[in-house]
Design a protein that fits this description.
single chain; about 725 residues; alpha+beta; Aldehyde Oxidoreductase, domain 4; 7-stranded mixed beta sheet; 5-stranded mixed beta sheet; 18 helices; 28 strands; binds dioxothiomolybdenum(VI) ion
Length: about 725
C-alpha cells in the first residue's frame, strides 16, 4: 500500500516526536562508513565488467566553430566521433541548450570524441595524438564585453530606490566581483557502460538518478525504460553531478558500437572543463538607511554569464527580496552570452555568492552609519516576506545572531583595527546565513521482514552527505527497531524514484517518503495487534499496546511492505520557506605580506529538525570551509583570448586544505518547522556556505581596514590597499 502525502497544510504535531526508539537526531555513525574506510565501497570507476575497454575523451581546442575532421588514431584504435556525443556535449550539461549542429563546438575543452583502447594509457596517448582540424568562429568570451540579456521576469522594482539613496542619512553604492568557481568533488566524473541487447546499464557518479536516466535516454535516442543507472556511492557532487556528463554518453555510444563494456574516466583537468562552473558575477549593491539604521532602500544588480541558449542562470539575488526589509527595492539580473564553459549549479547556487556579497555590503553600511553590524541586521529583519506579505514558515535569523554573538564573544570586538599581535592584525566579522528551502517529489519502499529486520529502498543517492544513515534512522525510529536492524539500499534507478540529492532538498524529501512508507507499516502492525495506531508503541523490536506486547519476529507471519510518496504542496506557496543562521570569523592579517589566517569560525544554524547531529554538523563544516575558499583562495582564471580555464587542477585552483581551516564550531538552534511535512526538517547542505565568506571578508576589514570587493582576497589585493 502506498501512503501519499501532499504538503498542503502545516502539520503542527510531528508524529516523530512521539516515537519510542529515540534514535532520530542522534550522532549515529555512517552506516556505510566501514565500507568506505576499508575501500570496499565501489565508486563509479571501480567496477570491472569482463572485457572492459578504456575510453578517453577528446576535447576541442577552439572556443567555438566546427570540427572538420578528427583524424585517425595510431594502431587502428577506435575513434568515435558520434553526433550524439558532440550535440550533447555542446549543450554543456543543460537539458536544453544551443541546438548545436553535429559538429558544433561551443566552448574550449568541450568533448568532441572518444578514443577507445585496451588500456587507459593507449587510449590517452592516441587521444592526444589526433590531428583535428576545425573551422573556428570568432566569439565573445568576456562577460563585460557584450551587451547582456535582461529577462523581464528577472527584474523587479518597488518604490523609488534613487530617491531613497538621495534622501538617505547613510548609504553605500559599490560593485563586487566573484570569479568562476568549480565544484571540486573529490571523485572525478566517471562512467562504465554495458549493453545487454538494447538495454543499457551505466555505473556513474550522479546526484539524481531518475532525471539522469531520462537525460541519458534522451541523449542516446532511446527510451528511459532501456536504461538502468547505478550510483551506490558517490564521492561528492556539489552540483557537478546533478545531470549526466560526456563521460557516460561517450561510454554508452562506444560500448554499443564496440560490443564490449567501456569505461570513461575524466582527468581532473577534464572535470574542470566539462563539469559546469559557477558563473562569475558582478554585483552592484546599493543600500540606504535612516539615521537610526533602518534600511530605506535595497538595490541588487547582478551580471552573470552562460553559453547562448542555456536556461540556467546563477540566481544571485534569490534571497535578497526577503532577507531584509526596505520600502524601496530594486533587483536586476543580466546574463552575458559568452563562450566560457557551461555555467550551472555549484553548491548553493545563488546565495553562495549573492548572500556573501550582500552581507559584505551590510558590513560597509554598518561602518558608514556607525552602527554595530549585528545591530544593523537585527534592526532590519522583516516580520513577513516583503512584497508578498507571506508569513515565514519559521524565522530564526534574530536568534541566530544573538546566540552567535554571545557564543563568539562579539562584545570584545572593536569597530576598527581590533589589535596587533606581533605582525598580525586581528579582526572579527559577522554575516547572516540564509538559503531558500523546498521539497521535491520523492518515493520510497520499506519492507519489514518477518524476522524483524527492515529494508529501505529508494533511488536516492548518498553523495557523502549521510543519506544512508539518516534514512536508516528515520526507518528505525518509525518502526521501533535498532538502527543495525535496518538495511538501506540506494543508488539504483530500478528502485522507487526519489528527489535525489541537490538543492538541500534531499534529506527532507527522501526522508519524508521513507517516513510515509514506515507509517504505512505501522498501520499494518496496529491491525495485527488489533489496536488503534495511536495506542501502538514500537520499541527495540517489540510492539506494545496496552497490556499486550509481542516481539515483531513473533508477531509477523509475513513480510510487511509500505510505499511512501511525498509531493510538495501548497505550503511551497503559502509561506516563505527558508533556513537561517549566522556566521562568525576571527582572522589574522599579516601587516607586511597581506596573508590572511582564519583563526576560528562559528556557524549558528536553524534548519528544522536535525536528523543526525554528526552528519548535519559535517555538512556545515563543509559549507563553512567552502566559504573560506570563496573568501580567500578559490578562483578560476579564464584565458582572455579563448575563455579557457587556466587554473584547472587542484594545484592551481586552491580549495582550503587542513592547514587553512581553523577549528570550526557549529551550533544548531532547536527548531521545528511545521510547513515542511511531518519530519519538520529542512535543508542543511548549502546553508553553511551562504554568508560564510562574508564573515571572513568583514573580519579582514575589521583587522586591517581593507575592503576586498574582487574575490578572493589574496595577499596581493590586501597589501595593495593596506595602510601600515
Ligand atoms: Mo546542488 S548545487 O543543487 O547539488
Amino acid at each position: 500500500m502506498t501512503r501519499h502525502l501532499k504538503v498542503d497544510a502545516p502539520i503542527p504535531d510531528s508524529p516523530l516526536d512521539h516515537m519510542a526508539q529515540g534514535v532520530l537526531g542522534k550522532p549515529v555513525n555512517r552506516l556505510e562508513g566501514p565500507l568506505k574506510v576499508t575501500g570496499r565501497a565501489t565508486y563509479a570507476a571501480e567496477a570491472r565488467p569482463e572485457g572492459m575497454l578504456y575510453g578517453v575523451l577528446v576535447q576541442a581546442a577552439i572556443p567555438a566553430g566546427k570540427v572538420i575532421s578528427i583524424g585517425e588514431a595510431p594502431g587502428g584504435l577506435a575513434v568515435i566521433h558520434d553526433p550524439r556525443l558532440i550535440r550533447y556535449a555542446a549543450q554543456g550539461m543543460a537539458s536544453e541548450g544551443p541546438t548545436a549542429g553535429p559538429d558544433q563546438v561551443e566552448y574550449m575543452g568541450q568533448a568532441i570524441a572518444v578514443v577507445v583502447a585496451e588500456s587507459f594509457e593507449a587510449a590517452r596517448a592516441a587521444a592526444q595524438a589526433l590531428d583535428i582540424t576545425y573551422e573556428p568562429s570568432d566569439v565573445p568570451v568576456d562577460p563585460e564585453a557584450v551587451e547582456p540579456e535582461r529577462p523581464k521576469e528577472k527584474q523587479s522594482a518597488t518604490g523609488d530606490l534613487d530617491r531613497a539613496m538621495r534622501d538617505a542619512a547613510h548609504c553605500i553604492d559599490q560593485v563586487w566581483h566573484t570569479p568562476s568557481h568549480t565544484s571540486a568533488a573529490m571523485e572525478p566524473h566517471a562512467a562504465i557502460a554495458e549493453w545487454s541487447g538494447d538495454h543499457l546499464t551505466v555505473r556513474a557518479g550522479y546526484q539524481m538518478l531518475a532525471s539522469s536516466r531520462e537525460q541519458l535516454a534522451d541523449a542516446l535516442g532511446i527510451e528511459p525504460g532501456q536504461v538502468r543507472v547505478l550510483a551506490p556511492y558517490v564521492g561528492g557532487g556539489f552540483g557537478s553531478k546533478l545531470g549526466i556528463n560526456a563521460d557516460s554518453v561517450a561510454a554508452a555510444i562506444a560500448a554499443q558500437q564496440l560490443g564490449r563494456p567501456v569505461q570513461v574516466v575524466m582527468s581532473r583537468q577534464q572535470v574542470f572543463d566539462l563539469a559546469h562552473r559557477r558563473s562569475e558575477t558582478r554585483q552592484r549593491i546599493r543600500l540606504a538607511c535612516d539615521a537610526k539604521g533602518k534600511l530605506t532602500g535595497i538595490g541588487h544588480d547582478a551580471l552573470v554569464s552562460n553559453l547562448p541558449g542555456v536556461s540556467f542562470s546563477e540566481p544571485v539575488t534569490q534571497a535578497t527580496p526577503f532577507t531584509y526589509q526596505a520600502a524601496h527595492r530594486q533587483i536586476g539580473h543580466a546574463i552575458a552570452r559568452i563562450h566560457r564553459s557551461c555555467a550551472g549549479s555549484v553548491r548553493a547556487p545563488g546565495e553562495a555568492v549573492g548572500a556573501t556579497v550582500f552581507e559584505c555590503a551590510m558590513d560597509e553600511l554598518a561602518e558608514v552609519a556607525g552602527i554595530d553590524p549585528v545591530e544593523l541586521r537585527l534592526l532590519n529583519i522583516p516580520e513577513t516576506e516583503p512584497g508578498t506579505n507571506r508569513p515565514f514558515s519559521s524565522h530564526k535569523l534574530a536568534e541566530a545572531l544573538r546566540e552567535g554573538a554571545s557564543r563568539f564573544g562579539w562584545s570584545d570586538r572593536r569597530p576598527t583595527r581590533q589589535r596587533l599581535e606581533g605582525e598580525w592584525y586581528i579582526g572579527m566579522g559577522v554575516a547572516s546565513a540564509v538559503r531558500v528551502n523546498s521539497l521535491i517529489e520523492s518515493r520510497a519502499r520499506v519492507t519489514l521482514r518477518a524476522d524483524g529486520h527492515a529494508v529501505v529502498e529508494t533511488d536516492m543517492t548518498d553523495i557523502g552527505t549521510g543519506s544512508y544513515t539518516i534514512l536508516g534512522q528515520i526507518a528505525a525510529e518509525t518502526l521501533g527497531v535498532p538502527v543495525d536492524r535496518v538495511a538501506v539500499r540506494l543508488g539504483d534507478s530500478e528502485l522507487p524514484a526519489s528527489s535525489g540529492s541537490g538543492g538541500s532538498f534531499g534529506a527532507a524529501s527522501s526522508g519524508t517518503s521513507v517516513y510515509l512508507a514506515c507509517a504505512e507499516i505501522r498501520s499494518q502492525i496496529a491491525a495485527l495487534m488489533g489496536c488503534d495506531e495511536a495506542d501502538l508503541t514500537l520499541h527495540n523490536g517489540e510492539a506494545r499496546a496496552g497490556n499486550v506486547a509481542h516481539q515483531l519476529d513473533a508477531l509477523l507471519q509475513d513480510d510487511l511492505q509500505g510505499d511512501g510518496h511525498l509531493e510538495p504542496g501548497k505550503t511551497e506557496d503559502t509561506v516563505r520557506q527558508a533556513t537561517w543562521g549566522s556566521h562568525w570569523a576571527e582572522v589574522a592579517v599579516n601587516r607586511w605580506t597581506g596573508e590572511v589566517r582564519v583563526r576560528r569560525m562559528l556557524g549558528v544554524f536553524a534548519c528544522g529538525r536535525v536528523l543526525n547531529e554528526k552528519t548535519a554538523r559535517s555538512q556545515c563544516l563543509g559549507g563553512m570551509s567552502f566559504g573560506l575558499g570563496m573568501a580567500l583562495t578559490e578562483v578560476i582564471e579564464h584565458d582572455p583570448r579563448d575563455g579557457h580555464m587556466v587554473t584547472r587542477d587542484l594545484a592551481e585552483y586552491h580549495i582550503p586544505c587542513h592547514a587553512d581551516v581553523p577549528p570550526l564550531e557549529v551550533h544548531f538552534l532547536a527548531e521545528s518547522d511545521t510547513f515542511v511535512g511531518p519530519l519538520h526538517a529542512k535543508g542543511l547542505g548549502e546553508l553553511g556556505i551562504c554568508g560564510a565568506g562574508a564573515a571572513i571578508l568583514n573580519a579582514i576589514h575589521n583587522a586591517c581596514g581593507v575592503r576586498v570587493r574582487n574575490l578572493p582576497a589574496t595577499p596581493d589585493k590586501i597589501i595593495a590597499d593596506m595602510e601600515v
